[in-house]
Design goal:
With 439 residues, this protein is α+β, with helices and mostly antiparallel strands. It has two domains: 13-160 and 318-386, D-Maltodextrin-Binding Protein, domain 2, CATH 3.40.190; 162-316 and 406-437, D-Maltodextrin-Binding Protein, domain 2 (3-Layer(aba) Sandwich), CATH 3.40.190. The chain has 20 helices and eleven strands. It has helices at residues 13-19, 25-37, 58-75, 86-99, 124-133, 139-145, 167-172, 182-194, 209-220, 237-250, 264-270, 282-288, 294-299, 331-341, 344-354, 370-373, 383-386, 398-405, 408-417, 423-437; strands at 47-53, 78-84, 105-107, 146-147, 150-151, 154-159, 162-166, 276-279, 300-303, 318-324, 358-359. The strands form three sheets. Strands 2-1-3-10-6-11 form a six-stranded mixed beta sheet, with helices on both faces. A three-stranded antiparallel beta sheet has the order 8-7-9. The chain is globular and about 65 Å long. The two termini are 40 Å apart. Pfam families: SBP_bac_8 (PF13416). It is found in: Periplasm. Belongs to the bacterial solute-binding protein 1 family. This is ABC transporter substrate-binding protein. Its main location: periplasm.
Amino acid sequence: MHDFTRRSLLQGGTALAAAGALTGPALLDFAKAWAQASPWKAEQGAKLTVMRWKRFVPAEDEAFNAMVAAFQSATGTQMNVFSEAFEDVQPKASVSANTGSGLDMVWGLHTLPQLFPTKVLKMNDVADYLGKKYGGWTDAAALTCKQGNDWLGIPVATIGGYMTYRKSATDKAGFKEFPKDFPSFLELCKALKKNNTPAGFALGHASGDANGWLHWMLWGHNAWTVDKDDKVIINSPETAKALEYVKALSETFIPGTASWNDSSNNKAYLAGELYCTANGISIYVAAKDDPTKKEITEDTQHALYPVGPIGKPTELQLTVPILAFNFTKYPNAAKAFVAFMLEKENFDKWLTGSRGYLTHTLNAYEASPVWTADPKNAVFAQASKRALPASGIGKVGEKAATAIADFIVVDMFANYCTGSKDAKTAMAEAERSLKRIYR
């Protein structure tokens, strides 16, 4: 009923051949040797149904397919992997968690495992194995998946979102270098609008893009949803300043951002309608792969997010953790698959396949060749190390995950920027929503 880009993947030997998935005998030889030595032996007749987010970079899909095929062949585990749009992953995962059926594993977004801490298979042994072998985990990535000393899932990667912009447009706007602070960034966006080369950032329910850049804006003004003790503090003078700033910024945007999802800015940028946005490297990769987009490819540059009044990076990057439900009949196969995903023989190829779209969460992969293959890739290597957890300064857990999934911060900004609410009302509504979660 599903496919890998909404098609059924790897259902037996015929699908293996059809997928053309293995990159060569070396990968299969490695997989077989790994399966023999692995601490986790897949159960006899194991079958895993895995849901993941829909890929934005085709080469990442191909590298993932190859890895899944090798794992299936080496362990005998039947793999049924299908993909869903970003915004559909969490609701579908919640259905499985609530019914105790349908899925064995989910490769999701942000703090997804924290939404159902009593329904997931603890991954402490997998996290310890990988962390010791590959230089430890980045702080924000580890916090994303941990509850106390328990790992509720494994942070496979971070999809780094940074500034994607047309250099010719920012040069014409009078900025030879991309701004490094909020005031200069606003001035750039005003100049881009004046020159009919506008910026645009999602104000709709874009799970990755909107949550990412609007939390960066909130935190950059030293405004937070909750404090270190999880007391709700969203209704503050700092939040009011963040709202005013983002409204001024939104007035420079290309029309339609209030309804944007996670693919909208990609399409607008590649159509030549958008000249500055926040995104993963996928826009640049898509342009490179399209001979008709040569001008956009050569003109595109990337930059770190400007820093707000707080004076330090305050980035919510898109961690993509994988979890296994504790009602799976095949826990050993699930753990083995997760560990196999992040072994060097797979992961370096996977990072290369993603072409910088995925960023490592294990420190050893800082040396991955993908970060030097193209100078325009380099900025994305910093994503996981510069990120804060989705809870900001609060406690990571189910409540913070719920606040992200419910778009509370996104809706607060969108309501004010679109004029449907004044600042006082927008903050008060966000405060009420957060207090229902943090009661």
